[in-house]
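Severity: low
Component: inverse-folding endpoint
Summary: output formatting inconsistent between runs
Steps to reproduce: submit the following structure tokens with default settings.
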């Protein structure tokens, strides 16, 4: 079932239920006013509205913290990919084009994953492709590092690749 349609159905149901309860409360209040009972519910009303306000405040607080966490993870992932991309320059010139091509395909796969998620679809194929591309990037980079005599380039590139792979797992969790 489409997740967006489900959410819209729930929201519409809650809206209609709220309108029905307002009408019931209005009629109940008019009946009690006609009987001469006035002001009996003001303390209860105040307590109910205070609790409702607290409930709404806690809901928005939780939503904001989750939104901030997601935004922070997006920034971390883009920084990790950017750092790894820049450190490809440390590889031997003959190995750089292949790794850059893998990176472009990896980035396209990650973007396709987030497009599917935003559309409410399951991104299983894109996640699988991203994992395969991560493994291929790692394999090609390690092979290039082994062929290169400079250990410094490997000490800088491989941790950046590892962080790029790790942040993917963190975002998935």
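Observed output (run 2 of 3):
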């Amino acid at each position: 079932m489409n997740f967006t349609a489900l959410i819209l159905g729930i929201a519409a149901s809650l809206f209609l239920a709220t309108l029905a309860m307002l009408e019931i409360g209005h009629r109940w209040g008019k009946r009690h006013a006609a009987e001469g009972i006035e002001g009996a519910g003001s303390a209860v009303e105040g307590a109910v509205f205070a609790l409702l306000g607290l409930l709404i405040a806690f809901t928005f607080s939780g939503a904001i913290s989750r939104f901030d966490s997601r935004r922070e993870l997006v920034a971390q992932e883009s920084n990790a990919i950017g750092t790894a991309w820049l450190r490809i320059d440390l590889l031997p010139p003959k190995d750089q084009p292949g790794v850059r091509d893998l990176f472009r395909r990896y980035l396209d796969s990650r973007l396709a994953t987030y497009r599917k998620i935003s559309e409410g679809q399951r991104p299983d194929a894109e996640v699988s492709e991203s994992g395969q591309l991560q493994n291929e990037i790692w394999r090609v980079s390690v092979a290039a590092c082994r062929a290169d005599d400079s250990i410094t380039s490997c000490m800088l590139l491989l941790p950046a690749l590892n962080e790029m792979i790790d942040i993917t797992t963190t975002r998935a969790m």
